[in-house]
Predict the 3D structure of the following.
Amino acid sequence: MQTTISDEEMKIIGLFKENVYGRSPDTNSFNQRHDGKDGHWLERQMGIAANANNEPDLYGYEMKNSTGSKTTFGDWSANYYIFKDKEIDLNRTQFMEVFGKPNAEKGGRYSWSGSPIPNFNSPSTYNGSEMVFDDAKNIIIVYNYSKDPRPDKANIVPPSLQQEGVILARWDRDNLNSKLTKKFGHHGWFKCNKGKDGCYNQIAFGEPMIFDNWIKLVEQGVVFFDSGMYVGNARNYSQWRANNNHWDSLITRTYPPFPGF
């Protein structure tokens, strides 16, 4: 456990105290339709350039923003998707029409999100797919036609896919290890928290993350795959998340009180 505050952590605390603490996000200059506008404001206040790099945000620490119920480790797409398999005649839109679900609130737009998505020990209630490890300990989502509960599945699933053990997506273990370690394996992470009034009132720090511990949490269902893929957007939105009570359990130190500068 850390007993002294590193120079890097002191710099981050100083930025938070000077530019964020006691303030609510002023997002007037940001796209009001963008869900991440609060996060962009926070990045600007902390001196972080907006980016999609899989690297720590600031001085070797990954920054997380205050959230309602769950916090994201990363937007990490699978290494393999069935719709990218040249030997299978299924494009991305067709994939979502077969294994995803229409959203009545979006005019029937299909998405691979919500109930079509399984997690460990929690098969999809919509299409019966499951998340498991393969023999190489990669994470896969596998579809078994016999477990698909949809009464009209014979009319939805192409005959060539009406079988067992169809791999829909695969995340290679080494790739996930690299992504997690690059983001969270340097000095650790910190989260800027808000009070009920919407103003930032705390910065919390956690230790570097170890992949073997993280993958066990995936297997236990503590860390889960929260897909947001939908027709009409090329981004996969492959979010890996955990509820905030888990993140809170990882906190090792909080400020204020602020150390002397």
Q: What stands out?
A: The mean pLDDT is 94. The chain is about 25% helix and 25% strand. The chain has two domains: 7-74+175-224+240-255, 80-171. Residues 80-171 form one domain.
